[in-house]
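Predict structure. Chain length: 134.
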Amino acid sequence: MRVVLAKPGLDGHDRGVKVVAMALRDAGAEVIYLGLRQTPGQIVAAARAEDADVIGISVLSGVHIPLARQIREAQQAAGVDDIPLVVGGTIPAQDVPALTGLGVRAVYGVGTPIADVVAGVMALNHGALNGGGQ
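Prediction complete.
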C-alpha cells in the first residue's frame, strides 16, 4: 500500500503527520511524505505520479474544508478522484459532514488513537479495491 501524506497551506506544524507516517510505515505501508506548504495541485500530482492508494492531509490551521475541496477538485481534473482522501488535524466535529460531503473518506481529529488512524487508512487500500496493490 502506498500513502501520500502532506501538509497543505501555510500550517508549519508537522509533528503529528510525521507520527502518522512512521506508524503507517511500521504497519507495512510505503509512505511518501511531501512535507510542509504543499499546494492541492502538488499533492494530487504526487499521488498520481506515485500511484498512491490513499492521500492523507494534516490541517491544523482551520482551513480544512477549502483545502479538501481544492484537493478533490484537483483529483477530478487529474482523473484520480477514486484515490481516497483522508483528513486529520484540528477538525471540529461539526465540520465532519461537510468534509464527507466533499468526498473525504475519513476524518481523524486531534486525539484519535494512532492505532485507529492506521487501521482506518490501511482499510482504504485503493489498489486492492481496484484489483492491484498488496
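Summary: Strands lie at 2-6, 30-33, 54-59, 85-89, 106-109.
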